[in-house]
Amino acid sequence: MDAHAFGAQALPAWRRAVLKVGSSLLAADSGGVSERYAAGLAAFVTRSREQGREVVIVSSGAVAAGRGVLHTEAAGLTQRQALAALGQAHVIALWQRLFSVPVAQVLLSHDDLRNRRRYLNARATLRELLRLQVVPVVNENDTVAVDELKLGDNDNLAAVVAALVDADVLLIATDIAGLYSGHPVRDPQARPVPQVERITPEIVKMAAGEAGTLGTGGMRTKLEAAGKAAAAGIDTLLFCGRDGDVVAALAEGRLHGTCIRAHGDRLLARKLWLRNAPAGLHGVRVDAGAAQALGARGASLLPGGVVAVEGEFGRGDLIEVRLAGDTGDTVLARGLAQYNATDLRRIAGRHSRDIETILGYRYGEAVIHRDDLVLLPMDARAENA
């Protein structure tokens, strides 16, 4: 299972990544968690940040850390939840020791990602942490999740988080070198698979074996996660997190492992949805300065440029942006509202720094963030007129 049997290939271009680190890379031989492999991964994150990139870590290890504290095994769901609650502090403490910048813990559950408002809140929190130069460390909220509501494993959680933060790549650090054509130990004919263009039934058959004693997901769950990421337009990279040379090579733009390609353009798919989804007649009127900022600079829509709020809508609803005074009712843009109509009426025309003073809280400085906004071409505007 030599990682270098995969050779070297160039990493896809990326600015923001999600790095998933499994329990097998954090567990200590004597119980609890260890920096042995985590230190190299943290060094990669630090180097990437120095290069102007952003990394969100999805970290397992809470149950393993809890076992190390109590020196016991978990026999059922309730015991696993208790061990996770105990171990979370140790996992975060480990990561904080490895970084010179603050580390933030973010616990997510199935409900957080199914409920639109909580989904937006989670995304806003992660975006703000990245803006503040903090390293977010995400884990499933095992202390409250039950089997029917669990995301299943942190491979799939990492794929969901990658889509949540609009990541360019999903990095999955594992204890083997990558995907092989068969089980790399049991099958002497197994060969490295450095590139996967699309996950087919034949590719899934290559994922033999189960997770180790400390993990909940094997290679099959990694392919499931890669499939979710691919559907969101995100490449997935599988590599051995135990090999220091392989991890160091990532910072130099080289992958020794498996690259699973995305199915199309991530941003295009999102923009097409925003452009074509039904939005109704609700929205905002903006002044000429805001319209110019949206069209010429690709800026977010700030409350200072909002002249009027039309209709009733909730946070996260798709709304339309029109120019104030335009009798033709031309739609300039569409996007997801960061504030509901009632709150937006209170902050319309005001500076972003005044939002928290007026409302008592803030979801960010924008009415519509530029990542959630699409400009309509002239022909589409004419159709909406």
From TrEMBL:
Q: What's the Enzyme Commission number for this chain?
A: 2.7.2.11
Q: Where in the cell is it found?
A: Cytoplasm
> GO terms for molecular function, please?
ATP binding; glutamate 5-kinase activity; RNA binding
Catalysis performed (reactions): L-glutamate + ATP = L-glutamyl 5-phosphate + ADP
- Give every PUA domain span: 282-368
Superkingdom of source: Bacteria
Keywords attached to this Swiss-Prot or TrEMBL record, sorted alphabetically, are: Amino-acid biosynthesis, ATP-binding, Cytoplasm, Kinase, Nucleotide-binding, Proline biosynthesis, Transferase
- GO CC annotation: cytosol
Tell me yes or no: is Iron-sulfur among this UniProt entry's keywords.
no
CDD domains assigned to the protein according to its UniProt record, in alphabetical order: AAK_G5K_ProB, PUA_G5K
Name the pathway.
Answer: Amino-acid biosynthesis; L-proline biosynthesis; L-glutamate 5-semialdehyde from L-glutamate: step 1/2
Its principal location? cytoplasm
This molecule's function is given as: Catalyzes the transfer of a phosphate group to glutamate to form L-glutamate 5-phosphate.
**Protein name as annotated:** Glutamate 5-kinase
Give the organism's phylogenetic lineage: Bacteria, Pseudomonadati, Pseudomonadota, Gammaproteobacteria, Lysobacterales
Protein encoded by which gene: proB
